[in-house]
Amino acid sequence: MSMPDPEPIELYRRMVLIREFELRAINERKSGLIPGFIHSCVGQEATAVGACAALRADDVITSTHRGHGHLIAKGGEPKYMMAELAARSTGYCGGKGGSLHMTDFDLGILGANGIVAGGIPVAVGAALAFQMRGEDRVALAFFGDGAVNEGAFHEAANLAGLWKLPVIFFCENNLYGEGTPQHRQAPVPDLSIRSAGSGFPGVIVDGNDVLAVFEATREAVERARMGGGPTFIEGKTYRFRGHYEGDPMVYRSREEMAEWRQRCPVAAHRKWLEESEGVEPATLTALEAEVHESLDEAVAFAAASPAPAPETALDGVYGDTHGGRVF
Ligand SMILES: Cc1ncc(C[n+]2csc(CCOP(=O)(O)OP(=O)(O)O)c2C)c(N)n1
Ligand SMILES: [Mg+2]
After folding, report:
1. Is the beta carbon of 243 within 6 A of some atom in ligand 1?
2. Coil, helix or strand at residue 200
3. Which of 65, 189, 231, 279 would give a disulfide with 220, using CB separation of 3.0 to 4.6 Å?
4. What is the pTM of this model?
5. 8-304 fold
6. In 3-state terms, what secondary structure has residue 144?
7. Is 176 close to ligand 1, i.e. is its CB under 6 Å away?
8. Distance from the CA of 197 to the center of ligand 1, in angstroms?
9. Mean pLDDT of all residues in the chain?
10. Which residues touch 83 (CB under 8 Å, ≥6 apart)?
């Protein structure tokens, strides 16, 4: 059965939640609550939300170092995420994993991943399991343009194509891998053509248009569920902030950044809701206020939570406590 259209306002709420979560996390890093790196997905909210809206609750995703948006879009709970970023025992990994390892098996979130392309074979493995068990579930791997140049991508794509596995390869092409622009890391501007060598289709979508991302993913998911095999979806997008917080960004121009800011996916969807759906601006402002409030609570929850106890240092290292929150 085809995935029903998502509520357009719900898509907006999720994008605002991701945007504001990221901005709050960045602030709390400055305030000292959050140690370590943050690779924010500000500017890339539509790929996460549009793609996950086309998935069922029992479908699974794998994510990347830029994964907060993917987790929220798949149902991740901001307060457990904030607590994890703050290295508190109430976080998704008990405060010991941080940004790059958040996982919630119950929600089908098989993990963020610090290894570029590392999540792709994991998604293909999950898809193989679904096929072997005769389940009509699908797996979707999020990854960046840089990951497409990794062997892990090609090896996983080859087997997925050969065995017609129910997996979606979702590339968020934000034009840079760290500070290296697209044209200096790959000989082709459209990475979706890489799927041809593994015998499955590749499509390009405006990654800043949440409805377009949803439609493209819905089509790919339907095909996968019916045994039609994988699809490579390339969402053309842009990260508004640095590769990591603190990145001096000397590798790109102010003009380029300003141009992409004009194409903000959150503002674009808000405009569409107002102009095409007749949603009152006051409704959207109220929704934004609710999101802010929920994030106040998430930060307070994180700040009030204790650090993990030293005697729990080895919990979750071995297979006995895997699978989401470990407390
Ligand atoms: C296998 C591996 N190589 C290198 C790195 C260092 N590294 C972290 S993020 C990154 C860039 C990834 O670019 P892309 O896949 O386009 O994702 P984006 O950061 O643009 O979202 C690199 C090279 C790593 N984490 N893993
Ligand atoms: Mg990139």
Report:
1. yes
2. coil
3. 231
4. 0.96
5. Rossmann fold (3.40.50)
6. strand
7. yes
8. 23
9. 95
10. 89, 90, 91, 92, 95, 298, 301, 302, 305
- Give the number of the ligand closest to the Cα of residue 174: 2
Ligand 2 centroid distance, CA of 251 (Å): 13
**Residue-wise pLDDT tens digits, 66-95:** 999 999 999 999 999 999 999 999 999 999
The helix (H) or strand (E) run that includes residue 211 is helix 210-225
Separation of CA 147 and ligand 1 centre (Å): 7
CA distance 236 to 171: 8
Burial class (CB in 10 A: 0-12, 13-18, 19+), 201: middle
- What pLDDT, on a 0 to 100 scale, did the predictor assign at position 314? 82
Residue nearest atom 21 of ligand 1, based on CA coordinates: 144
User: Which whole number is the average pLDDT over 88-106?
Assistant: 93
Nearest-CA residue for ligand 1 atom 7 is: 116
pLDDT of residue 321: 54
Extract the runs of DSSP E, i.e. beta strands, from 2-99: 60-62
Using pLDDT thresholds of 50, 70 and 90, give the confidence band for residue 4.
confident
What is the spatial distance between Cα 159 and Cα 27, in angstroms, rounded to a whole number? 42
184's tokens: 């200096």
Q: Write down the pLDDT at residue 316.
A: 73
Q: Is the CB of 69 under 6 A from ligand 1?
A: no
Checking if the pLDDT of 21 tops 60, the result is: yes
What spacing in Å lies between the alpha carbon of 143 and ligand 2's midpoint?
8
| DSSP E strand boundaries for 89-210 | 139-144, 167-173, 176-177, 180-181, 202-206
d(CA 187, CA 203): 18
H or E element: which one contains 28?
Answer: helix 8-31
Q: Is 95 in the pocket of ligand 1 (CB under 6 A)?
A: no
- The separation between CA 97 and the C-alpha centre of its own chain, rounded to angstroms, equals 17
Nearest-atom index, ligand 1, CA of 178: 11
Q: Which atom of ligand 1 lies nearest, measured to the CA of 66?
A: 21
Closest residue by CA, ligand 1 atom 17: 144
